[in-house]
Amino acid sequence: MKDQLFWLLAIVSTLSAILVITRKNPIYSALYLIVCLISLAVIFVILDAVALAGFHILIYAGAIMVLFIFVIMLLNLKPEEFGQEFSMKTKIFIYLLCLLIFLSLAIPFYLDNSFKNMPDAQKDFSSVNKLGSLLFDKFVLPFELISILVIIAILGAVVLAKRRI
Amino acid sequence: MTKYLILSSLLFSIGVCGVISRRNILIILMSLELMLNAVNLSLVTFSRYRLDLQGQIFFLMILGVAAAEVAVGLSILIALFRTKKSVDTIDASILKE
Which residue in B4, B25, B50, B60 has the most chain A C-beta atoms within 10 A of its own C-beta, making it the best mutation to test that interface? Predict the structure, then answer.
């Protein structure tokens, strides 16, 4: 059952990712990116990382993409202001280049035999409990630094977007 | 487990394709998020494979960094849009030549 579900989710996420990069209207791209993020969260649930799936949907699809959509709506672009695109010749060259990048990443994974089987995990291999006890015990320094980084990002975003400093 | 890694590399290369081939800054930012998510997927896969929770902690750090980066990137876009009145990258190339 997990196998078929994974294949379905892989097709959904790949299709929506391709649709993200090919749409002219940025709102459509944002909506397809939300579909891709939700399918990735379900893949996290298959991988027994239920807490991370919840954080993923809360933060990525719930806050970051909403920020994107707010900005797109505030910019209020008319269809002729969407920006020109490269010519078809340039795009074909770029698609071939990215196909090369994908093959150079995927072929070593495909040929390697050491990742074939997943070990069995207990029911609560990853829970908010265990993540929290790691975050406040062993990884407390990255945790505090991330909070400082977010404060700096908030200050920077407010200063950059003001009309008069 | 290779299928998860192949999906991660596929999404990453689609994100690279989006960053290089589009001229709209918003789409470029969104493909950047796609690349970060592909890396997140491979991190969670390896964490599950090795039954080690450190990969998931790293995931949370990347999530925080991505949120901060999107906030600052979008505010730069708004500041750029105010002067250039365009979201095309070709209009932001005054340093060229």
Answer: B60
The interface predicted TM-score of the complex, written ipTM, equals: 0.93
pLDDT band at A43 (very low <50, low <70, confident <90, very high): very high
Q: What is the pLDDT of residue A103?
A: 95
Q: Tell me: the pLDDT tens digits for B34-78?
A: 999 999 999 999 999 888 899 999 999 999 999 999 999 999 999
Contact at CB, B49 and A106, closer than 8 angstroms: no
What pTM was computed for the model?
Answer: 0.93
Complete DSSP assignment for A4-44: HHHHHHHHHHHHHHHHHHH-SSHHHHHHHHHHHHHHHHHHH
Distance CA B61, CA A61 (A): 17
CA distance B39 to chain A (A): 11
CA distances from A151 to A43, A64, A137, A145, A155 (A): 31, 16, 22, 10, 6
